[in-house]
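// run 5 | inverse folding | seed 20
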């Protein structure tokens, strides 16, 4: 089975995670894929393969003779897809991109005006959606690449390697991917998540991240007699939002620039809620962003009355850089693996997070490698065939002794 075959098989599983279901994993389909992966891992020759009650799938490739004393390296990807766009009934299409806008079978085209980087893939085969769902390259491409690399090593026992720990996790997209991850049981001294973007990217810096929820209590009075008495919670919430820095949103930032991202707004005159994300690579600026929201909430309460605005903030994960700096050989080894197979490495900051960020603070240094995909979390997602194949080569080189 090729990496392409594996990828197309995995995207047929509906594994979209969901917020606040009260279960772990958050959706049952993730364990269905997990069971299929465990079965495939056993068939490949991995040992001690298991899926636990939480849906974590672990398996191990024993060290080759003479390499038993080498540290165990781990390779991880997540099984769930984003809740932002449907991941059910995915219909992947393999097309040759000849330049210009790329039409999708049942949806809008991937346009150069919106995605100018598309042009660099002219002449390549791309796996795209039909325009009605996401593709699932985030992160089923990573799973396919890891298992294809393992299959290659099993077929070539002459290639020396230490013990390899392979893991597939649930619920990464909703921030729960490591909630029940047993680092000691996984058994690796260091690891890589294969969960990044375009071919060549290596990431060991990510956002410090928090989520915030604002609840606004209004006073609803009949509009005919509301003068000087009504407090419209919708308008009050809008006023609070209007004080956020206009240029510090995802649409106006890049690189190491942080942001506030309002992603959900619900309400009536009586009560409104606002959900937002807080992101910054720099820890001090991150803490300042949270303090700013607290001051803003205090100010609005001074205007509208104490208790009108309630803010809750929860940290999600922190920048893994401080945990990776003592292990920079992980980055140098990843660069060397890419260069060895003809891929130009590019170290970039993650404008987001991965399981590796939290694992790095749990005692498992874990930078992130690319999958080769692009436009994740939407119907315009795609991955070049060449990128899938090249990442298998990269991983085989990185797994070897």
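// decoded
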């Amino acid at each position: 089975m090729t990496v392409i075959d594996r990828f197309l098989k995995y995207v047929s599983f509906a594994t979209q995670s969901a917020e606040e279901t009260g279960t772990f994993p958050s959706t049952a389909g993730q364990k269905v894929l997990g069971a299929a992966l465990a079965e495939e891992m056993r068939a490949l020759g991995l040992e001690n393969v298991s899926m636990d009650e939480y849906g974590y799938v672990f398996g191990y490739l024993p060290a080759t003779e003479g390499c038993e004393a080498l540290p165990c390296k781990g390779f991880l990807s997540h099984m769930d897809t984003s809740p932002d766009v449907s991941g059910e009934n995915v219909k992947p299409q393999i097309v040759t991109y000849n330049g210009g806008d790329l039409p999708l079978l049942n949806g809008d085209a991937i346009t150069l005006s919106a995605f100018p980087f598309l042009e660099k893939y002219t002449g390549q085969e791309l796996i795209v959606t039909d325009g009605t769902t996401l593709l699932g390259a985030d992160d089923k491409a990573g799973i396919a690449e890891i298992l294809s690399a393992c299959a290659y090593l099993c077929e070539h026992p002459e290639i020396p390697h230490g013990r390899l720990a392979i893991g597939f996790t649930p619920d990464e997209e909703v921030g729960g991917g490591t909630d029940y991850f047993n680092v000691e049981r996984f058994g690796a001294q260091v690891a890589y998540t294969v969960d990044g973007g375009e071919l060549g990217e290596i990431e060991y810096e990510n956002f410090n991240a928090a989520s915030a929820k604002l609840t606004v209590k209004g006073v609803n009075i009949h509009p005919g007699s509301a003068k000087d008495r009504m407090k419209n919670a919708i308008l009050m919430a809008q006023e609070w939002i209007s004080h956020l820095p206009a240029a510090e949103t995802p649409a106006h930032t890049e690189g190491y620039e942080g942001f506030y991202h309002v992603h959900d707004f619900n309400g009536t005159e009586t009560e409104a809620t606002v959900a937002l994300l807080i992101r910054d690579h720099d820890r001090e600026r991150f803490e300042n962003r949270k303090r700013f929201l607290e001051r803003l909430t205090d100010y609005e309460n001074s205007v509208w009355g104490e208790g009108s605005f309630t803010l809750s903030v929860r940290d999600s994960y922190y920048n893994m850089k401080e945990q990776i700096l003592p292990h920079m050989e992980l980055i140098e080894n990843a660069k060397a693996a890419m260069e060895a197979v003809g891929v130009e490495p590019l170290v970039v900051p993650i404008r987001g997070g991965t399981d590796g960020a939290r694992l790095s603070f749990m005692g498992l240094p874990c930078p992130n490698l690319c999958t080769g995909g692009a436009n994740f979390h939407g119907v315009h997602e795609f991955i070049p065939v060449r990128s899938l194949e090249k990442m298998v080569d990269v991983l085989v080189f990185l797994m070897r002794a």
